[in-house]
Structures are given as C-alpha cells and as structure tokens.
C-alpha cells in the first residue's frame, strides 16, 4: 500500500551541502517528497522529538547534535514508505550499512549518521504531526 514516513536530513549532512544528493537517493528509491522544510531545531524540540531515547546514555549528545545546525524535515510517500526508506537509509551505524545506502555513502558515525527515518507507521504518524500540519503535505 502507498503510505507515508517521516525523514530528517541531519546537521552533519546539511552542513556538507548534501541535501540534494540525499533527496536524489530517496527519489531514485521510489519515494516522493510530499512535504519538506529546513528548520533549526531548538534543544527543547530535539528533546521532545527524541523523548523515547531519554534514558539512553547518548540522549544529551543526540539532542545537542540535532539542535546544532539546520535540518531538513520531510514527509515521504511511496509503496511501503517506512520499510523502503529504512532500506535506502541503511543501518544506523555506517560501518554496518550496505553498499549504495545513504548512510554508507554519507554518514560519519553512528551519531552523525546523516538521516533519520521513522521505524514504524505508527511512529511515522506521530513524527509527521510533530513537524507538519495537514495543509503542508501535498501528495
Ligand atoms: P535516529 O534514527 O535519528 O534515532 C536515534 C538516534 O540515536 C539514531 O538515529 C542515532 O543517530 C543515535 N544513536 C544511536 N546510538 C548512538 C550512540 N551510541 N551514540 C550516539 N548516537 C547514537
């Protein structure tokens, strides 16, 4: 089924001017960018967005990083969008990411790993609603 997922192009990637190259990978994989904006998250916004990871040892580092420079938040649409996006992103740790994936090609480390993608349709809906209103999504 055609579904939607939520994606972030992270600070390490926007700083290296990789937005277009990452978008090309998403589009080549059959995902359609139906909403997109460049924002600079506050620390508080990053903390709320990553609330599920609050107990993890890397929470402080993660939320500092995500609020350190602009990001591009996106809604992607396509056949099985959550799974398709996770496939094109590659493993969280770039050292484990498959050839041809975004993280294999661009990520610097497990933290500075260039992109975020929702891990389930349920979380996708929550994450999309956190950054976009219905009228900003044009399918
Ligand atoms: P993301 O998909 O954005 O969701 C949680 C993020 O935590 C994950 O990508 C990683 O970038 C980050 N992360 C996971 N493990 C570590 C770690 N050991 N150190 C720093 N960041 C991490």
List the helices and strands and how they pair.
Layout: E1 2-9, H1 11-15, H2 19-28, E2 32-39, H3 43-49, H4 59-66, E3 71-79, H5 81-89, H6 102-106, E4 115-117, H7 121-131
Antiparallel strand pairs: 1-3, 1-4, 2-3
Helix pairs in contact: 3-4
Structural write-up:
- This protein has 139 residues and is α+β, with helices and mostly antiparallel strands.
- The chain is built from seven helices and four strands; from the N terminus they run E-H-H-E-H-H-E-H-H-E-H.
- The chain has a four-stranded antiparallel beta sheet, sandwiched between helices.
- The radius of gyration is 14 Å and the shape is globular.
- Bound molecules: adenosine-3',5'-cyclic-monophosphate.
- Adenosine-3',5'-cyclic-monophosphate binds next to helix 4.
- It catalyses: a ribonucleoside 5'-diphosphate + ATP = a ribonucleoside 5'-triphosphate + ADP; a 2'-deoxyribonucleoside 5'-diphosphate + ATP = a 2'-deoxyribonucleoside 5'-triphosphate + ADP.
- It is an enzyme of class 2 (transferase).
- GO terms for molecular function: kinase activity.
- Pfam families: NDK.
- Its EC number is 2.7.4.6.
């Amino acid at each position: 089924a055609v579904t939607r997922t939520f994606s972030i192009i992270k600070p390490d990637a926007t700083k290296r001017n990789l937005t277009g190259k990452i978008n090309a990978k998403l589009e080549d994989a059959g995902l359609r960018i139906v909403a997109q904006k460049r924002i600079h998250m506050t620390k508080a916004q990053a903390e709320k967005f990553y609330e599920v990871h609050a107990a993890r040892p890397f929470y402080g580092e993660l939320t500092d990083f995500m609020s350190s420079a602009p990001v591009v938040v996106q809604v992607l649409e396509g056949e099985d969008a959550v799974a398709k996006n996770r496939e094109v992103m590659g493993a969280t740790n770039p050292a484990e990411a498959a050839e041809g994936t975004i993280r294999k090609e661009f990520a610097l480390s497990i933290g500075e790993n260039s992109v975020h993608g929702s891990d389930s349709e349920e979380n996708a809906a929550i994450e999309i609603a956190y950054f976009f209103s219905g009228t900003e999504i044009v399918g």
